[in-house]
């Protein structure tokens, strides 16, 4: 595991509560049942993650050589660059909005799409909102919010490439934006099997770019390929993150089995009062006793 972030934080001496995917979905549904909008939550999540990304960048990449004459800190001359890899589910929607917010903040942004067709970028084709990808991620059952996020990013002229268009080229490395930060927004917490096809190739390529260039890798919510409820990684195909921006509540998988090897530093972004939401749905979404015992055994083996 690379240690290149050098993040500073106040030590957390309190026990960390861990949750499985079903519980996190229940928290979200309880929040929406109170009348809150799902797309507003997505925008809030992306905005807060953008602030964290900029802070992480400042800590790692910005020159802080102090000038006594000007009483200011000097920044690097080259533009800040971000390569954001998105799938078609809501995790990808987060990625599109992060691209939009980073570009608004002056970053040079490129979005690498996986699982998309050229028709998905036709802003006049309203049927795009009903298309459902076949990639095994249950986050993708309803991609209306993700499509709205895509449209916002395209309207602000965020540059994008289709991963499938460049992967077959011998000079594929030259076609990807050299970046200071690579952001993984391919899969969310619904993935429960090994990534396949273009997604598998994209995860390998993402890891190759970040490791070869010693570049910061940030995962949205959970590293793609890591099972959120168990910490399992199938066939060793998962994003090797330096930082994971964990949304709503801390997942079991970040701390069990393979989770600690892939998650890097974990930054919590709670978003909603999840403990209250969990209590409201506890009668219908309690963890079965056998499942809880299984999670605890995995945790103790770490």
Structural class: alpha/beta
Q: Which blocks of ≥5 consecutive residues have pLDDT under 50?
A: 63-69, 126-136, 138-142, 282-293, 298-302
The fraction of residues assigned to DSSP E strands is 5-15%
Rg result: 19 Å
Shape: globular
* Count of beta strands: 9
- Percent in helix: 25-40%
The average pLDDT is: 81
- N-to-C terminal Cα separation, in Å? 16 Å
Strand order of the largest sheet: 5-4-3-6-7-8-9
Task: Give the SSE string.
Answer: HHEEEHEHEHHEHEEHEHH
Number of helical runs? Answer: 10
Give the biggest sheet: 7 strands, parallel
Which characteristics define this entry?
single chain; 302 residues; alpha/beta; seven-stranded parallel beta sheet; two-stranded antiparallel ribbon; 9 strands; 37% helix; disordered C terminus
Concise description?
This protein is of the alpha/beta class and 302 residues long. It has helices spanning 21-33, 38-61, 90-104, 144-155, 163-166, 172-175, 197-212, 259-263, 274-280, 289-301, and strands at residues 66-67, 72-73, 81-86, 108-113, 159-162, 181-185, 216-220, 243-247, 265-269.
Question: In terms of topology, how is this protein built?
Answer:
Blueprint: H1 21-33, H2 38-61, E1 66-67, E2 72-73, E3 81-86, H3 90-104, E4 108-113, H4 144-155, E5 159-162, H5 163-166, H6 172-175, E6 181-185, H7 197-212, E7 216-220, E8 243-247, H8 259-263, E9 265-269, H9 274-280, H10 289-301
Parallel strand pairs: 3-4, 3-6, 4-5, 6-7, 7-8, 8-9
Antiparallel strand pairs: 1-2
Description:
The protein is an alpha/beta fold and 302 residues long. It is 37% helix and 13% strand. The chain contains 10 helices and 9 strands. The strands form 2 sheets. Strands 5-4-3-6-7-8-9 form a 7-stranded parallel sheet, with helices on both faces. Strands 1-2 form a two-stranded antiparallel ribbon. Strand 4 (108-113), helix 4 (144-155) and strand 5 (159-162) form a beta-alpha-beta unit. Helix 1 (21-33) packs across helix 9 (274-280), helix 2 packs across helix 3 (90-104) and helix 3 (90-104) packs parallel to helix 4. The longest helix is centred in the N-terminal third of the chain and has 24 residues, at 38-61. The chain starts with 20 loop residues before the first helix and ends with a helix. Residues 63-69, 126-136, 138-142, 282-293 and 298-302 have low confidence and may be disordered.
